[in-house]
């Protein structure tokens, strides 16, 4: 996959705007003189003045640059449950931000105005990694999340911000589709304390036709992160009626999860709503979401949650050994927190996998916009 071919006027404007952009990582020059990006499986090959498929990694002279380093599409303080993460410091607040662009082409993208933007990299607010970490600390956040668009494409910015967060005792969270090369994924996930990885479906046909990417690359990332890092991971699947919601596909996905990463990685099954280029597909019925959750639990997964619908039963964290309700939620708000200080069930003593404290946070379901000078 090659980058976009710019017009002469666009090339001149881009050349001027990229001069001060930092040199990117994960690229090399090939025999014909083009620069090949090694960050994601698309491996875009660029002539001077071209951008990659993601639109934010570009060739400036004899180097590749990240045009959105330090430029965000906006900041908000969210509940950590909104990422979604159910087993990572429940009830705490997280400073969330993204940039422009994406390396996938999801026909149903719910953040398409950001991920598909061809202007944000010039119009967005400037925010250094340290300024972001300082704002999160000042706001009482426990974590900073790279989200809204996929942080893989602004990996250098995310990695540097994660380092700034760690200097202040904050966590770094990646919300990603996991479409990244083996060469880059160790660098990207090493500083991430938690990640929610989209497992968008479980057929190659779905991945290629609806996202323009490949299933195997994502499965490899999920298995690798689970087996080779200390990053806490949870998975999310958006169930789209008629496309990835059959009982056979859900069962197949759950069998893979059990075989490759085990029963304790939380799975979030979220409801689709019509957006972007799939306005003709109906929303996911709540009953279908609950039925899918039942399939996943019956398959042997211990922690399965529903999202984008009001479903109190699908928000409960239950002990996998005795069934005792340990964390009860209403949307993103913690109603009850019964885990012991060391993350165990008070009824039977079973350990619940995750990153838990002696008490839950009290942020609630609020989302607040934040300005960072």
Can you walk through the features of this model?
- By secondary structure, this protein is of the alpha/beta class.
- It has two domains: 8-66, no CATH class; 72-368, Alpha-Beta Barrel (TIM Barrel), CATH 3.20.20.70.
- 27% of the residues lie in helices and 21% in strands.
- The chain is built from ten helices and 19 strands.
- It has helices at 8-18, 112-115, 120-123, 129-138, 155-167, 182-189, 204-211, 215-228, 247-260, 286-299, and strands at 27-29, 35-37, 45-46, 57-60, 63-66, 71-72, 75-79, 93-97, 125-126, 143-146, 171-176, 194-198, 232-239, 267-271, 304-307, 317-318, 325-330, 333-337, 368-370.
- The strands form five sheets. The protein has a nine-stranded mixed beta sheet with strand order 15-14-13-12-11-10-8-7-19. It has a three-stranded antiparallel beta sheet with strand order 1-2-3, with no helix packed on it. It has a three-stranded antiparallel beta sheet with strand order 16-17-18, with no helix packed on it.
- Strand 13 (232-239), helix 9 and strand 14 (267-271) form a beta-alpha-beta unit.
- The two termini are 37 Å apart.
- The relative contact order is 0.13.
- Mean pLDDT is 92; it is low at 4-9.
